[in-house]
């Protein structure tokens, strides 16, 4: 099964990326969290930097314009 990459993942429950991670996992989707924060969301570790990920079907973007250039 291909995963959904959540770019801008955060352990902050007031952010949309956090809510999206939980909704996706509740509906049985595999997620890959990538962000600048440390920790985990929906039981999945947040990967930092520019990790090499494979088997991504969908990307959800929760980054403002000034944080997007490195990605």
Commentary on this structure:
By secondary structure, this protein is α/β, with parallel strands linked by helices. The chain is 15% helix and 30% strand. It contains one helix and five strands; from the N terminus they run E-H-E-E-E-E. It has one helix at 16-26; strands at 3-7, 31-34, 40-41, 44-47, 56-61. The protein has a five-stranded mixed β-sheet. The N and C termini lie far apart (24 Å). The model has no long low-confidence stretch (mean pLDDT 94).
Strands, helices and their partners?
Layout: E1 3-7, H1 16-26, E2 31-34, E3 40-41, E4 44-47, E5 56-61
Parallel strand pairs: 1-2, 1-5, 2-4
Antiparallel strand pairs: 3-4
List the keywords.
71 residues, globular, alpha/beta, 1 helix, 15% helix
């Amino acid at each position: 099964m291909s995963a959904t990459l959540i770019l801008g993942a955060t352990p902050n429950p007031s952010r949309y990326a956090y809510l999206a991670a939980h909704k996706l996992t509740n509906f049985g989707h595999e997620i890959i969290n990538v962000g600048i924060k440390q920790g985990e969301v929906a039981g999945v570790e947040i990967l930092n930097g520019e990790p090499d990920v494979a088997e991504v079907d969908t990307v959800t973007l929760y980054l403002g314009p000034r944080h997007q250039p490195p990605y």
